[in-house]
Amino acid sequence: MESWDSYVHGFMQSDFDGKNMKPVLKNESDKCYCPYKNLYEGFMYIDHTNIDKPLVYWTSKNRLIAEDIYGYIRSPVIVLDKSLQSYPSTKCLTPNMKDYRVEEVLITNNRIIVNLPEAISNSGCEKYNLATTIYTISVSYWTCLDNDLNEFKEFKVQTYEQYYEFQNLTPFTEYTLKLALSNFYVDKLSMGLQFGADVKLSTTGNAPENVTVQVLTPTVTAVYWMPLKKLNCVAINYETERTVDGKFFMTIRSLLPGQKYLIYVRVYPINFSNLFTDSLNKSIYMYSEPNNLILSGVFTNGMNISWIPSVKLKIHYKLEYKNDAMQKWQKVNNTKKNNDEVTYYIENLLPRTKYKFRLILRYPDYMEDFVWPPDERFTFQRLEIE
């Protein structure tokens, strides 16, 4: 069997973080003065409650012996009991029961990650290390049942780490988190948990799916998307119409012809407009404005108007005109097409009278008339001809 000296020389000491490792005895020639040569058959425990003077406890059968970390007995063999043990007072065994709170790190539609604070020692206990902190988080929230009633739910989780990740949460749900810190001694002393103030964190929603954009006219476009699949006790409004295949769509008007737009769909609860989720951007180019109307001829009682339709679009169109005295717009029926140009012949016009002209167009994917231009830019006057 190995001698006690050789056994002790086999032990190492280090900082509490595992660095600066060296033998227990200061020199290889040092002898262990422990009177009990068979202590290695028991257990060893390092007590670092006093950071300045940590001790090593050796146990063997019914004996408990204290040494410094260099392997020397500071006094003859000491059997420790409550009267001799220099142990911290009760208040130094437990953390300060201050108002601890979780700190938000990340929130998504189904996850919440929080940081947890370090335990703080009570006043006058700064030189003692606290036992491992136990974090208890109380979580409560409202959930919806199938009968449209709400149910309050609550649960608790525990961890020894300084962060915690909640998974598989419900979108658009407000969770109330309360934190309590404890350790081994809090439980042994039956002190009970003291939770801090409420921290309310709300998950976001799922991003709208299958977003598509369709250009309808030079100033109008439509956006389509699938509705959210899973919601909690929140109401969401869409200023939209529902299509046959279950999609929603929204018509966006008053856009500028020929311009590029980035469009996305944002979803949020009615009462929490700052709690939103956006879809990916969709890039679109609006149709250009129709070509200008041109006064191409004036005769005794009428005038000719020419126009070139866009060759890229198969659209239906007609020309209308009126003066200030007319209540209704008049359609021009007399037309002639030469290559890509259309000429309209308007007769029976009054002399020295201004007439406004406009086009009524019907684009392939838009069921309403598109009136162009929206202003009176094409106003022509039939002059008196001698």
TrEMBL record:
Organism: Lasius niger
Protein name in UniProt: Proto-oncogene tyrosine-protein kinase ros
Keyword check for RNA-binding: no
Lineage: Eukaryota, Metazoa, Ecdysozoa, Arthropoda, Hexapoda
Keywords, in A-Z order: Kinase, Repeat, Transferase
Entry GO MF terms: kinase activity
PROSITE patterns for the chain: FN3
InterPro entries in the cross-refs: ECM_Regulatory_Proteins, FN3_dom, FN3_sf, Ig-like_fold
Alphabetized Pfam families for the sequence: fn3
Annotated signal sequence range: none
Domain Fibronectin type-III, residue spans: 289-385
